[in-house]
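Deliverable D4.2, example record:
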Amino acid sequence: MKIQQIRRDKDEYMEMLLMADPCKDVINSYLDKGEMFALVNGGDVCAVCVVELLKNRKCELKSIVTRKEEQGKGYAKYLLRHVCEHYGNQCDTMYAGTGNRRKTLEFLGKCGFVNSHIVANYYPEHYREPIYEGEVRLTDKIYLKKQLDSEVNVKKVVDLALEAGRILLKNGAEIFRVDETMTRICQRFHVEYVDTFILSHAIFISAENGMEETYTKVKQVPLSSSHLGIVAEVNELSREISDGLVGIEEAGKRLKEIDRIPEKRGYFQVFAAGAASGCYGYFLGASALESMAAFCIGCILYVWVLAAKKQNLSKMIVNIVGGVIITALAIGVCHLPLPQDVQFGGMIIGSIMPLVPGLAFVNAIRDIADSDFLSGTVRMIDALLVFVYIAVGVGVTLSVYNRMGGGLML
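Output generated by the structure prediction step:
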């Protein structure tokens, strides 16, 4: 589905225009000096409209009509939104005149038009034949208007794109995805001159509207845990924006809702951590009994992780203490009277998986592969430091146990 401006052979669409205005002479009076736009879907013209530029940064929607078999599919609303955005840079107000047609007035109202003024006795003076709406003869022309200064506003568009990029980056999206999403949002709202510079923890964006009006903004995005559900929601919203199904205001509200999407319930995260620990341990060579122990240790570990998040403890403390908890519990399991011998190595390997920053590590590699060396390096260092923290926790616990217990477990 695309919208194109019709510059030649406008008469070819006269049959469609006559559906909205029954007088050919009236249509011809504005067709040549007006600008025509057509919505094309699958090679077929589904809707057309004509807009005439007026003085003092005003314009008038002279006609908008959808082919009969395509009515009720939202094509006219999509086309009108595009036209409002198109004229937003050169006009402040768009007018639309119509008779006392209930459907037309409701449609324009839903598109943001409000009452402006009435031209009395317009139809009898401009039309040879009487025009009826049902059984009521149309006499006065009702004008509605819509302010266009908010349709394409560089600051609004940049703020929207920046917020989408912030949410993506905060929740573990790749650099190229953040950049692509922000650029598409800006271009969709006709802000063509956009420059972005994205790091793993900051976004810089500068945009120009073609009238020497530049807007630049910087946003710090601290490194945090990932939430791929939110990333998927923002991706879906960006596709709807690109398709013209969502306007600026609605997109802003949707982003706020997406940003407030909560994490899974605590008990679900604890169970998932335990399941990951047990399964990974088994895949990496642990016995069934060791995997069951890893499941229990993983659950206990994630209780600590969730508690630490609530207290906003640093990543270093969370992972070092996590390594201590894993190792201490694994050693404790080895001293239990179990039906078979267990090795703490298999339990530890599985239990550390909830702490391992696998997504951050993979994204770092992808960023480096996409030549985002600075962002990739920062993410790589952050992931490697997590590995170091875990190793410190495990190593210190084993060292203390060996000194106190005489190395019986080794």
